[in-house]
Amino acid sequence: NNNNNNDNEVISSTNTTTNDFERNKWKHKFGDICKQVLREDKGMWEKWADTIAKEKLLLLILPHLPTDRPQLDPSCYEMILNQMIFLAPKTFLECVKKWPPRIYPIHNIIQKALGRLNEKKQDIHLLQALAELFCAVVV
């Protein structure tokens, strides 16, 4: 009987790993499909970003989101960064490092990140992102 429990745990663990693998595969495919379908259509990228943000699923398209050709409206990037500040600080840091600061209202982002840092004082990703943002303002 004890052996059955171990077997069930292994099967459960394997299923979880398989499910995670499948989920990650579909997440990547979703972003690829968006990139192929939306191409350089600024309006459609903004519409999709807004729709996906409402579902808190921006991580699905973030790696594929254009920052030029097309460059989206600054409010779109601001909305995305604001959501990442709260939901995924590490991804927020990655975006701040990758995206040119001219495409979003940097002072608004700094204020939002500072507010969040007051709530999560030890978040190293927020601290690093703020350092990047402050350096971009100074330059």
Task: Put the structure in a nutshell.
The chain is mainly α and 139 residues long.
What descriptors fit this protein?
single chain, 139 residues, mainly alpha
The portion of residues forming beta strands comes to under 5%
Mean pLDDT: 89
Number of strands: 0
The number of domains: 1
**Mind describing the biggest β-sheet?**
none
Which geometry do the CA atoms define? globular
* H/E element order: HHHHHH
Give me the Rg, rounded: 19 Å
By helix and strand content, what is the structural category? Answer: mainly alpha
The amount of helix comes to over 70%
Distance between the termini: 67 Å
| Uncertain spans | none
Helix segment tally:
6
Quaternary structure annotation: single chain
Question: Any overview of this molecule?
Answer:
This protein is mainly alpha-helical and 139 residues long. The protein has one domain (2-138). It has 6 helices and no strands. The radius of gyration is 19 Å and the shape is globular. The model has no long low-confidence stretch (mean pLDDT 89).
Give the arrangement of secondary structure elements.
Layout: H1 2-38, H2 42-54, H3 74-87, H4 89-98, H5 106-119, H6 124-138
